[in-house]
Amino acid sequence: MARSLIVQKFGGSSVANTERIKQVAQRVVQTKRQGHDVVVVVSALGDTTDELLELARQISQNPPERELDMLMATGEQVSVALLAMAIEELGEDAISFTGSQVGIITDGRHTKAKVIDINAKRIHDEVAKGRVVIVAGFQGMTMSQEITTLGRGGSDLTAVALAKALSAELCEIFTDVEGVFTADPRIVPNARKLSAISYDEMLEMASLGAQVMQARSIFVAKRFNVPIHVRSSFSSREGTMITQAAKAMEDVVVSGVTLQKDEAKVTIQDVPDKPGMAAQIFRELAEKDVNVDMIVQNVSREGATDVSFTVIKHDLPATLRIARSVAQRIGAGEVTTDEGIAKLSIVGIGMRSHSGVAAKMFEALSRERVNIEMISTSEIKLSCVIRKAHAERAMRVIHKAFGLSKRRA
Ligand code: ADP
Ligand code: ASP
Ligand code: MG
Model pTM? Predict the structure, then answer.
């Protein structure tokens, strides 16, 4: 009978130092000795990726993205080798690989590459020899053998993509919290662990700031129906299952609250109020790969109107360059920015069939005197842009208003 294969991913804090690497090795060996084949994906040690980026920043404000990828990919190469050694110490065979060695082929968009294909043969061959295979997360290689990375949090994507390519039974994501919570437990201490959540809700939560899973990894998991178990690397308790339908959740209107603090608001003042203006602004931004999030066009006065939108801060310099040049060409006014904003969102499949959810959120914010600057909705989420200074308090208020807190024991 074929043995079942499990992909286990350990995040940066799970491998922050050699003691933790030894603990991870024990966990992997335990899974192996329970009769599973195991393929492990690891992130770089602790805050290594941030530290590498800081080194780059000390050299250049605008480093070539190809070189950033060369630099960042070194982080995961350290952790895979150390984990392989730790597993060998425990008496099991292990072998570590970089992304390119195991044929994780990506497109050429440095620092945010997409996985195109995985040639799983090498992994299968090593697993067949009884080895634990350890793969560097977050990295791949283009067809022309350039090293790429998959965007921050990209080890989640490596794990999910490998689980799909290897037809794994399960993809286990080990992290520093016990699963997916109704809100970031660091900000909302009485947030509740969800036993299950659907891909759709997790995708929204991840895209709206819940860092526990990388959004793109959930997109891939949903597409290929890869079951994910998010759990703690420090305890053996059950975590959160992410699957197609989380039945237990269907009666729940709101499943989670998220906060995103890395966006900035850009306003183009006095845009002439005639057809084609918005098209011109947003076409040029799109051509430069700038992802615009929320857009608000104010009521027009005397033939002109203000257009505001949000972008992630990383894209702010490029956005300003483009917005200023378009503004000049179309005869608009000044372009201003505001980095003091945050986006607070509620997510839940139940919102599809319940009314009054928006009113409840607005009322709760108004009771706290939190001003709403922008609003956007979809079937299963509602987001408000508010002042960053109030954001964490507002998050706790909304979490409470929707009754998401832990029940007292
Ligand atoms: P890893 O290094 O394991 O990939 P991350 O730091 O990327 O870990 O993700 C885990 C963190 O995500 C947690 O420490 C927690 O603060 C944060 N987080 C944000 N929102 C949530 C949520 N809804 N549920 C659980 N964790 C969350
Ligand atoms: N080390 C990478 C990062 O910090 C990838 C990951 O941890 O998933 O973003
Ligand atoms: Mg992560």
Answer: 0.94
